[in-house]
Design brief:
With 394 residues, the protein is α/β, with parallel strands linked by helices. It has two domains: 122 residues, Response regulator (Rossmann fold, 3-Layer(aba) Sandwich), CATH 3.40.50.2300; 255 residues, Rossmann fold (3-Layer(aba) Sandwich). The chain contains 16 helices and 13 strands. The strands form two sheets. The protein has an eight-stranded mixed beta sheet with strand order 8-9-7-10-6-11-12-13, with helices on both faces. It has a five-stranded parallel beta sheet with strand order 2-1-3-4-5, with helices on both faces. Helix 11 links the parallel strand 11 and strand 12. Helix 6 packs across helix 15. The protein is globular.
Length: 394
């Protein structure tokens, strides 16, 4: 992924241009790789853009705000943020400030879509190539209901990826600060200090990230904080995103255990992830929750994310009231991406021994199904469903 905040190959343009809104939309539509979000004022624009690494801003100087103060705030809040200023009679101090900032351009008003499109293309191309140079893949796993198996699947994915001969640098990130279970599943300490996430994002670098990493003997690098609600209101969104940005730059794969509860950073994490997996059981309430969760992720990403629904604990019962994949798809109103077979003994062994399922019980059906999911995701594959014979069973 380009960063944890923006979908690979797509640049988010945050725009405040009241007089040129139509021109901006037209210019972006010709590029295809630019998605535009219009804002009502520059403060809202900067708040959104600073929380989405990989984005670009476009600001029209209307004279209703202090452009110099705005540029100073940009350099303080998001110094690497590129952008464009449009306007007439731009203050000299603002121009001088622009000249000191990298990857910023200035256009005189009036503007046309073609002129703006050329400038946007240059800035967005530079932004994409800069991000693509050092980016690993990022996948999130989240549950539709409690106990749907998201943590177990995230741990097993990280384990299988870490065992490869190539591309084996894997970081498992637990973003559930209230009730995170990755460290408990692996029976290892949580070294991420939540207080560090309440400080300025500029203080977070690769060295600090490595100090927070717990290295499990099975090859997984775990980034997990002790469970605590004390500092929740003080955690900075930009600090979370900076941690993820560094992780994606230093690991081949970043697997995120994403909690169900809302958080300020969830939209950027979901939007920036290469894949978003929603885990569900085969009960009707869980399926309804999966549908709602998938729709929620789509809303958070403004339609960019395409959640993959995975059904967990599939049984092979011929008789009884077992829900089939086709019935599940009807309930959730979208295709099921994959299924994971129920194998209780293997799951319990993994948790009891502090290991991934494939390590605790090699060759188990859960691991085989997750291996297939990984292969399909990497291949950009289509939906994986039951075979026709299984679909007919009720």
């Amino acid at each position: 992924m380009t960063s944890p905040m923006i979908k690979k190959g797509l640049t988010r343009l945050h725009s405040f241009a009241p007089r040129w809104q139509d021109n901006v939309s037209e210019a972006a539509s010709t590029l295809q790789t630019v998605a535009v979000t219009h804002h009502r004022d520059v403060n809202q624009l900067l708040d959104a853009a600073s929380n989405e690494v990989g984005s670009v801003v476009l600001v029209e100087y209307t004279g209703d705000f202090d452009l110099v103060k705005f540029m100073i705030r940009v350099s303080e809040v998001a110094p690497s943020l590129p952008g464009i200023v449009i306007g007439e009679n731009i203050p000299v101090l603002a121009v001088k400030r622009l000249l000191t900032m990298s990857r910023w351009d200035m256009l005189d008003a009036p503007i046309n879509a073609a002129q703006l499109g050329d400038t946007l293309e240059t800035i967005c191309r530079d932004q994409t190539s800069k991000s693509d140079a050092t980016s690993g893949k990022c996948w999130t796993v989240t549950s539709s209901v409690g106990g749907a198996g998201a943590t177990l699947v995230a741990v097993e994915m990280a384990y299988q990826l870490s065992q490869r001969e190539q591309d084996n640098k894997v970081c498992l990130v637990d973003l559930d600060f209230f009730d995170g279970a990755c460290a408990s599943y692996l029976n290892c300490p949580s070294n991420l200090n939540q207080s560090a996430l309440t400080q300025s994002a500029d203080r977070i670098d690769e060295a600090l990230l490595q100090a927070f990493i717990t290295q499990h003997k099975n090859g997984i690098h775990l980034l997990s904080a002790p469970r605590s609600k004390r500092l929740w209101n003080s955690i900075k969104t930009e600090a979370i995103l900076k941690v993820l940005d560094i992780a994606c730059a230093n690991y081949d794969f970043v697997i995120i255990d994403l909690p169900r509860w809302p958080s300020p950073w969830a939209p950027s994490v979901v939007t920036g992830s290469d894949e978003n997996i929603v885990m569900s059981e085969l009960t009707v309430p869980a399926l309804h929750a999966a549908r709602n969760r998938a729709e929620e992720l789509e809303d958070l990403s403004e339609g960019i994310a395409r959640p993959r629904i995975v059904l967990n604990r599939m049984t092979k019962k011929v008789f009884g009231n077992t829900v089939t994949v086709s019935q599940a798809e009807e309930a959730i109103g979208r295709p099921v991406f994959a299924t994971i077979t129920s194998e209780w003994d293997a799951a319990v062994s993994a948790v009891n021994f502090g290991q991934a399922v494939g390590q605790a019980k090699p060759g188990n059906r859960i691991s085989k199904d997750i291996s297939m999911i990984i292969e399909t995701l990497e291949a950009g594959g289509s939906v994986v469903s039951e075979n026709p014979k299984t679909r007919k069973r009720a």
